[in-house]
Amino acid sequence: MKQYTISRVVTALLCAATAALITGCGTDGSGSDANSTVPTAKTKHPFDTMTPEQINGQVREAVKELTSMRLTGKASSDGRQVGVDLAIDVRGSCNGTVSNALGPIHIIKRGSRVYVKAREDYWRATFSRGMTAEQTETMVDHFRGRWIKPPRLMSETLGALCNDFETLLELLSPGSSGNATRGADATVGGQPTAVLTERTTTDTTTVYIAKEGKPYLLRATLVGGNDPMDLTFSDHNKPVDTTPPPADQILDPTTLR
Fold first, then answer.
1. Total domains present in the chain
2. Residues 195-226 pLDDT 10s
3. Are 138 and 241 in contact (CB under 8 A)?
4. End-to-end CA distance of the chain
5. Neighbours of 190 (CB within 10 A)
6. pTM above 0.85, yes or no
7. 20 to 30 A from 213, CA-CA: which of 125, 162, 234, 237?
8. Considering only CA atoms, which of 24, 19, 21, 10 is closest in space to residue 164?
9. Domain that holds residue 240
10. CATH number of the domain encompassing residue 214
11. Helices (H) and strands (E) in the chain, counts
């Protein structure tokens, strides 16, 4: 089971997206807590006769069929923590939130069209760079409680967050170093899972693989090291809702002076 670098990829994507609004990612971001795991009774299952490497092979085959999924949880990279609750699909559409120290940013993307919404603290921090206090508050008044239709360059930057579905699928296809061990089964979101763990001198990676239906990866955690994470994966192949916000709630910043 290869070392999971998904935490670094996720945080890099989120930082790149939020940098379009404010420089840098915060260190105290919050996201949805990953589902807790509870031991389940041992039952006979095809996984019970497989090695960890063979179970990983089942995951790799299942991932090839994925067209969409939802990521929920927290990830860190280089001391920066972000939260994510984002549904994303193979066409680059998405709907959900990413979070840093200034709170969540809600993003809806369909094709090249992007809409974002953030709390006033986020906008205040954004506009305070290069504006007077009075100008900043004027802009915050415009943006408060509204969806924003960003200019082209900002839309492209934010939209990049949703354009890496295939990269995520590759990272969700675990390889094997031959050092993985199987632990006690658990549940994630009420679904029974097989649990595989790999330890190094610095960290422990644990993955939870569905035992019912397709053997999708449902949760991955990385404890220790420089890039801890706890991400849950759900809504596999569920269509992403890309319905735009009501027109009267959308602001086009290019119309502002």
1. 1
2. 998 888 888 888 899 999 999 989 988 888 77
3. no
4. 54
5. 7
6. no
7. 162
8. 10
9. 6-106+163-248
10. 2.50.20
11. 6, 13
